[in-house]
Amino acid sequence: MDNMSLLSTLRKLECELHQPKCRGDRERLAQLLASGFREFGRSGASYTRDDTLAMLPLKIEAPQIHAQDFAVHELADSIVLLTYRSAHIDSSGELFRHTNRSSIWRLSSAGWQMVFHQGTPTAPFDQSAT
Q1: Cα–Cα distance between 35 and 47 in angstroms, integer?
Q2: How many CB atoms lie under 10 A from the CB of residue 108?
Q3: Radius of gyration, alpha carbons of the chain
Q4: CA dihedral over 121, 91, 14, 16, signed as positive or negative
Q5: What percentage of the chain reaches a pLDDT higher than 70?
Q6: Domain assignment of residue 50, given as a range
Q7: Other CB atoms within 10 Å distance of the CB of residue 1
Q8: Distance, CA of 71 to CA of 6 (rounded, Å)
Q9: Which three-class secondary structure string do you get for the chain?
Q10: How far is CA 84 from CA 32, 108, 114, 120, in A?
Q11: Is position 128 within any domain?
Q12: Which of 16, 48, 85, 126 has the most CB atoms around its CB within 10 Å?
């Protein structure tokens, strides 16, 4: 898979994880998160795959998320680092809660699965059209 196709595939999967439909679907989350998944959240909290699945069903209203500046870096055969920036979108369309994000994805017989994710607060950035 060439770099642009890989970036497109992983961007789509990452953005799917932002959607309430996916975040509330235990089966889909179990497909996308590897069994050893670990997250260091923006808040500083740490989560495993089991922690994430145990939070379901989510009863909170998920924020709308803007994501941009995706980049992919191959770490090893079938292991990729995806980086990007995200922010929540308020009711007036303004961005807030700006975050640098990184995810490690691994290609297995089950398809691409996220094995690690980290969100780090960052200074506000301008929204790009991408």
Answers
A1: 12
A2: 11
A3: 14
A4: positive
A5: 95
A6: 3-121
A7: 10
A8: 10
A9: CCHHHHHHHHHHHHHHHHCHHHHCCHHHHHHHEEEEEEEECCCCCEEEHHHHHHCCCCCCCCCEEEEEEEEEEEEECCEEEEEEEEEEECCCCCEEEEEEEEEEEEEECCEEEEEEEEEEECCCCCCCCC
A10: 18, 23, 15, 11
A11: no
A12: 85
- The number of distinct structural domains making up the chain is 1
Residue 28 lies in a domain: yes
Per this entry, what is the length of the chain?
130
**Is residue 20 included in any domain, yes or no?**
yes
The CA-based dihedral angle spanning residues 3, 9, 12, 16, taken in that order and rounded to the nearest 10 degrees: -140
Neighbours of 32 (CB within 10 A): 21
Phi, psi of 52 (to 5 degrees): -60, -45
Nearest to 8 by CA among 23, 31, 16, 116: 16
- As a whole number of angstroms, the distance between CA 19 and CA 111 comes to 19
37: domain CATH number is 3.10.450.50
In a domain, 129, yes or no: no
Res 57 pLDDT > 90: no
Predicted model pTM = 0.92
